[in-house]
Amino acid sequence: GRRGWPKRPMMVTFDDGYEDNVAVALPIWKSLRLPATLFDFGHRLEGAGSLAEATAVYVILYEVGLLNVDAALGIDAARSAGRASRKAADWPEAMRWYGLARRIAEHEGDFLRLVRSLDGLGNTHRERGAFPKARQCYHDAWKIAQVVRDPIETANVALGLMTVEREAGRLEAAASYAWTALGLQPDPGER
Length: 191
Known about the structure:
- By secondary structure, this protein is an all-alpha fold.
- It is 72% helix and 0% strand.
- Helix 5 packs antiparallel against helix 6 and helix 6 runs parallel beside helix 8 (151-167).
- The longest helix is centred in the middle third of the chain and has 18 residues, at 91-108.
């Protein structure tokens, strides 16, 4: 059923992105076991090249997801931490975070987020030059994307397959995936 508001509702936000949010506020919030929401500054930090700081924000978001039993937030935060680690060429951390996102998505039956996690794993393997592993991740993502029936995610997977085939020197296969991705774009202007 639905729960009503408490008699005296309160909202506390930590939106400045300072380190004390992690070092001081988060342990206190955890001890209180209260629901929380953090505003995601990770993307802004990541865009500015502050990858370690962005990863710290994503780790906070992941922990908040765990505290609030919010699997979607946990998966998205783990994927974001994987992406920031991948950009920093920290391959073991990227694999760990993407793998964690994958396992949670599988457990939750969240197929859309599973496709996105496999895409991130595929990108990580591809950037390391592990084309067979990248190809396998993308093929797994492709199968699940067919079930999800999300044309944008399916197109993203096709683009990942195109890229790995191009970098592996398999240009005919790359061209086939490129045409598939173009055909899946719902907006003709994006083609």
